[in-house]
Amino acid sequence: MSILTLFVVIPVLMLFGLWIARNLNQVRGVMVAGASCLLALSIWLTITFIQMRHAGNTDLMLFTYSVPWFKPLNIAYSVGVDGISVVMLLLSSVIVFTGTFASWQLKPLTKEYFMWFTLLSSGVFGFFISTDMFTMFMFYEVALIPMYLLIGVWGSGPKEYAAMKLTLMLMGGSALLILGILGIYFFSGATTMNVQEIAQMHNIPVHIQKIFFPFVFIGFGVLGALFPFHTWSPDGHASAPTAVSMLHAGVLMKLGGYGCFRIAMYLLPEAAHQLAWIFIILTTISVVYGALSACVQTDLKYINAYSSVSHCGLVLFALLMMTQTSCTGAILQMLSHGLMTALFFALIGMIYGRTHTRDVRRLGGLMKIMPFLGVGYVIAGLANLGLPGFSGFVAEMTIFVGSFQNADVFHRVATIIACTSIVITAVYILRVVGKILYQKVADPHYETLTDATWDERVAVCCLIFCVAGLGIAPLWASNVISDTLGPILEHINSVSAIAAL
Amino acid sequence: MMPEVTLMALLVITFIADFCGVGKEHRWFNPLVCVLMVAHIVINIFPVEASTAFGGMYQTNASIGVIKTILALGTLIVLIQSREWMLRSDTSFKEGEFYMLVISTLLGMNIMVSANHFLLFFLGLEMASVPMACLVAFDKYRHNSAEAGAKFILTATFSSGVMLYGISFLYGAVGTLYFDDVAAKITASPLTIMGLVFFFSGLGFKISLVPFHFWTADTYQGAPTTVTGYLSVVSKGAAAFTLCAILMKVFAPMVQYWEYLLYIVIVLSITVANLFAIRQSELKRFMAFSSISQAGYIMLAVVGNSALGVTALSYYVLIYVVANMSVFTIISAVEEHSNGNTDMDAYDGFYTTNPKLAFVMTIALFSLGGIPPFAGMFSKFFVFLAAAQQGSKWAYLVVFIALVNTVVSLYYYLLIVKSMYIKKTETPMPAFRSNVSTKIALAICTAGIIIMGVCSFFYDWIEVAAA
């Protein structure tokens, strides 16, 4: 039994605990205990992982464990982590932990809310620890469906429409994925669904790869907000309750990028090289279009949702550049965007909970009334636009440097276009910060509002600590990521070099 | 022959018990029948040796034994959940008849799946259909039920006629009706192809594949809910398994002909049924279209034309039994407590008043829609796997269309979830305590939905038998 299995076992135990919980305090107790365990476990895992690497363990995957599941179909429950999954697990547990505090005062049906929330997080954790295509896919879907009820029941605004749209679009993506997985499985002739082993066999004919690559890439890309399949994202995020927006933008959208890299590019490397140009164009559009759309929104959540489209587009963009630096940047961007967008959504939720509006035009002067939330908002904004000292800067810097390493005109032009998003981000962030925090108080009724409560302070401080921590000391993370990416990118690039000959 | 023997014994015991007046005002008639059914399952759960009887007309093997157990399990759930309905004053006086009809249809299905000769197969089929028509018309004082019974018997006899016509073509072409001999002698000629098409259409009626599905919606709506559940899982499962076995075994030399037939029928069934299901506002009608599309998914397993496909099909039927019976048990319970209301609107705000039932219903619908960690996702994935294994681009195309349709089907399953959880209404259905039998049936179904996916045990059980 691997220690990693705990990442799934703890949420299942939490579900059980929630089920038997009798009152609100017990529900909260179970959630805090479980989320803390997960956080402690992932911190321990990260430290141990780094130590093991220092001790000279160069295996591709550590903590591996595999047990046959549906044996005749070669499906196994196999887990293992490399540098990328370790940091993703860390990110997820931070978001789940802070999400718990961000939804501390949620009503009604608190217990049910947390049950679906926990089921969602078990899917996320399961996805990141899996190394078997089927298991991975199963956890992926586990993470998607609770979204429907979480948004539909506890959301705000046109929630039914948003929930249905989000669920159907993401399920459409996973329908494409199933076909891709079946294609990879049968055409590789593998007797396993293990990602690593299929990658090593590497015997899918190139013309077959070119058929299935778009299926897998778009399948995951839908969740990664790839243009033009991103339309679920603004509506979904805007309608979702706070913690769900946090988890969804913070972690779930990363599943898309992670899957694109782990399955589409790793298993279908030749096709990845040959078809990358199409997706580079699409992701460049995502980056710029998302940022421009954010400029014209008036709802705080819509602004942040479009900003997520732009930033997640950057993740896919960087992955497709396929240099070691750019891919390291992509993973850093996943981490950084996950943390700061969660911070953003948490703050927006807290502001909305007080003012009952998210309309930029009706907000103003909040810094004077709720200084704690105001400062938090400024920090989140500055991190988002890539101020040095925060995580956003590290990630975007690495991405653009890495992308520019490609010597040809096409890649460089795409990089330059994508770079403009930095400026546009500054426009929409600064405009909003100035408007809602610093102008005169828009509504006299706001004067009576209170600042953050203790549970909100816990969530916000924890996230600010992570965002700033990653910005000030990014080296450990980028080393962990970069070490892991080396062999994978070598695999992707070398086999295509052979194919080119 | 053990399952048939025990079923006959069951039938006789039920008859005697009814004859002795157990049914009159005795509340343990239903438990008695359920216990006997459990005994039947336990006796027959062990794998059987391959053997034949009646001069080779009847055959059995481990794989057939497994499907019989699955059918018996489905019937058991039907019997358990029928108790609440059987306590009603207009049905309680004919309780014995209901059990006998159910058991005799099951006996017919057992013979049908065990047939090794077209005549025995036909005999089993008729044994399953005629009592089924009585069951559909069981609430005969209700206008719908009688109408549904008439529709069912007319289409059933018509399809039997078509099928017999097809079988006569085959007999004319090869001169024998034994499956093994037909398989050895059959070659593609206009006569045998016509035979294949007619035979396929006949069974297509029973499985309610598009374009042979026109009776389904009316019959499902009109039949008593318990019977609708029975019709949609057990009857359909038996017919699907038989069609699969006959296509793969008897028509093996004509695979390139029936494969295209299958592609067309599957794509039509799934797509057309899904499009119609979206528009339904009556839950039983809705489930009728849902079950047509599920039949399409079941047939997808046959596309692979392999042992993997047979396993996937049996597994799909098993999980379909628990998931669909769960939904029908709830519909039935709600119907009993709301004066026969089966409209979807009746479920608005259901969660606020009956949270447990709503939750169980949600799990069952998620399973039908193919959402993990519930079992439906696994069975769906396995039929896709079995179909894709065939490897041709047409097979991949059919899988792709089926996959796109899973999204559509998810949409309409979510409509019910939405109505239960999200929609607000002034007058939600009042809270009610359901009967113990209903609870037991739901517990079995829900446990099945959760465990059968996560544990590979059930798959291994079927797989070992099929190998």
What does the model show?
The complex is a heterodimer of chains A (501) and B (467). By secondary structure, chain A is mainly alpha-helical. Helices cover 77% and strands 3% of the residues of chain A. Chain A has one domain (3-500). Chain A has helices at 6-20, 24-54, 83-102, 110-129, 133-144, 146-154, 159-187, 195-201, 206-223, 232-239, 242-267, 269-296, 300-321, 324-355, 366-369, 371-384, 391-404, 409-438, 454-472, 475-500; strands at residues 62-70, 75-81. The longest helix of chain A is centred in the C-terminal third of the chain and has 32 residues, at 324-355. The radius of gyration of chain A is 22 Å and the shape is globular. Chain B has 467 residues and is mainly α. Chain B has one domain (2-466). Chain B has 20 helices and two strands. Chain B has helices at residues 2-19, 29-44, 62-86, 89-92, 95-114, 118-136, 143-174, 179-185, 190-207, 216-222, 225-249, 255-278, 283-303, 307-337, 350-353, 355-369, 375-388, 393-421, 436-454, 457-466, and strands at 51-53, 58-60. In chain B, strand 1 (51-53) and strand 2 (58-60) form a beta hairpin. Chain A binds chain B through residues 68-73, 134, 138-139, 141-142, 145, 148-149, 152-153, 159-160, 164, 167-168, 171-172, 175-176, 178-179, 182-183, 185-186, and chain B through 308, 311, 366, 371-373, 377-378, 381-382, 384-385, 388-389, 391, 396, 399-400, 403-404, 406-407, 410-411, 414, 417-418, 421-422, 456, 459-460, 463.
